[in-house]
Amino acid sequence: MDVRLEGLSKSFGSNQVLKSLDLTFPERRFVTLLGPSGCGKTTLLRMIAGLEKATEGAIWFGGRRVDHLSPGERNIAMVFQSYALYPTMDVAANIGYGLKVRGMAKPERAEKVGIVAKVLEIAHLLARKPKALSGGQRQRVALGRAMVRKPDIFLMDEPLSNLDAKLRTTMRGELRRFHLDLQTTSIYVTHDQLEAMTMSDLVAVMDAGVVQQFGTPEEVYDRPANLFVAGFIGSPPMNFAEVELGAEGGRPVLRLAGTALPAPDHFDLAGAPSRLVLGIRPQDVSVAEPGAEGAVPGTVWMTELIGSERLIEVEIAPKLRFTAEVKSSVRCALNAPATLRLDPGRIHLFDAATGQSLARRDALRG
Amino acid sequence: MSAKIVLGRVALYALLSAVTFLVCFPLVWAFFTSVKPKEEIFRWPPTLWPESWTLENYRALLEGKQAYFQAGAAAASGPPPSAFFLDWFLNSVIVTLGTTAISTIVSTLAAYSLTRFRFPGQRAVPYLALVGYMVPSIIFVFPMFLVMADLRLTDTLFSLILGYVCITLPFCMWLMWAFFRGVPIEIEEAALVDGASRLRVFWEIVLPTAWPGIIAAAIFTLIVSWNDYLFGRVFMNSMENLPLTVGVMHFFDGTHVDWGLMMASSVMMTVPMAVLFMLLQKHLVAGFGAGAVKG
């Protein structure tokens, strides 16, 4: 079942947290709402769940308008960040509560709870109270409670944020696997871009109550629609520098820290302003031989080993540093001269005034 | 175990024993006095352990009324105070249970709405209620007496229940308010998503979670209304309508104190509270909700 938002707005007093959103979450897809704290992603999820009322707009589940319905009438399931297990009930009662509310007979309920518990590998915990469970086990119980009712839509509010790094990685894979098995439309809220990139079919990047970009993980990574998305997605973050658009020998060039770089041809530069912002990911910057074409000279400011890669931060102009992610075998001395080569096919350009990307649609290499 | 730790433990146990003795001695003394014959109570030097045991005082309290009417003495000088003991006991039980039921139910519902529904003054109400509780009862009691008199409620058990509800409700509400603030709202939201109605969420999810808080509020109300003297003294005047605390004061007058009856009454007043507390205190265990949310 798809979820459609039409002109959805939400205000708390004078504070408008969602600004006229129009968005469709396609059927059976795993869609992530990704954004920094306070961007409105959790509020949006709670509105879809029916826990917050919309100030304006409509929410549709398939052909059914639901924004006037209570959470229980929407046939959704939600996994909360804090798990929100019922502390006085044991695991079996926690998982089966939704079925009990719907009037299912006890034997049938026990059977369904048993099946879900087996899938989630928590069958041996059914008689325990939540306080006797570890974080990962509680997470599974919360998932079980959501799965057992066979809801039309799964809503998840940062469900992995309270787990340690190792368990988070495991649960990420499991959640993805459950989704592929169940094929239920899922909406997942996170501020962790790694979760968004690894688990999602589609990502909606949000900031200040607005969806900045909605697309596949590849699209938002490779073709960021604006400066916010470009800066938010990717680790280490994208390098940015103001450049000036000029011309040399009849060809457009970008002047960056005294170096003229030929403007890549995947941009729509006709009528573009002269002040632009150049962005390039550290993975697309390499250390080159001095004097190579399109290379930017500078001084090594800092190096960091991050496992199989090394980050080299090079100052290319006063207070302007670019980071290159290179093989760990590449070594540079601090304060030594270094030359950076920016992969022309991977350069991003943004209008400095509006922050919007100047890339032609489908022009960037995937 | 090092000598320092052993010494620390010894000092701790010595201190705890001293405190236990201070707390328990009056109770033990009252009990032993209640089972001594009159002559032994006044003997000098006094005995702690009774030389001869008697249940005469308890019999006088429990069978006083019956004995008085059987003796046909009603016309002579009126029944002795001990004849009313069972009436007083029943009055105290009715007033205490009535107050506890009203205060606990109202404070639970009020505190829940104070923590869960948004309205102007939502934060101020619990603190204002607590300020009301800080004012001594003696300031309330006379205006309240006038109100009760206007309502023609004086000398009724209902007036006592109303009076005790007035003095216990603010604190109970504040207690429950502080308690509900610690109950994560996500639990209720999860139940709403599971399809439960708001009333069902309150009944099946919130109340079981709030049980320790409710018991704490109930114990507070029980103790206040069972032990109060002031309201009973001011609101009530018929001998048969008095609560226990006021009634037992009739065991002494300007010329004579019946220590045996006083102590037997004290023991019988203390025992129900002590038993109740022992039964309920296991529900007061903290940390009941640990594990419900992250952590």
TrEMBL record, chain A:
Keywords: ATP-binding, Cell membrane, Membrane, Nucleotide-binding, Translocase, Transport
Segments forming a coiled coil: none
InterPro entries with a match to the protein in the record: AAA+_ATPase, ABC_transporter-like_ATP-bd, ABC_transporter-like_CS, ABC_transpr_MalK-like, ABC_transpr_MalK/UgpC-like, Mo/tungstate-bd_C_term_dom, NA-bd_OB-fold, P-loop_NTPase
A molecular function (GO) term: ATP binding
Limits of the ABC transporter domain: 3-233
Family to which this protein belongs: Belongs to the ABC transporter superfamily.
Protein name according to UniProt: ABC transporter ATP-binding protein
Species in which this protein is naturally found: Sabulicella glaciei
Phylogenetic lineage: Bacteria, Pseudomonadati, Pseudomonadota, Alphaproteobacteria, Acetobacterales
From TrEMBL, chain B:
Membrane topology: Multi-pass membrane protein
Pfam families hit by this protein: BPD_transp_1 (PF00528)
Keywords: Cell membrane, Membrane, Transmembrane, Transmembrane helix, Transport
Major localization listed first in the record, in broad terms: membrane
Database matches in InterPro entries: BP-dep_ABC_trans_perm, MetI-like, MetI-like_sf
Subcellular location: Cell membrane
Descriptive protein name: Carbohydrate ABC transporter permease
Source organism of this protein record: Sabulicella glaciei
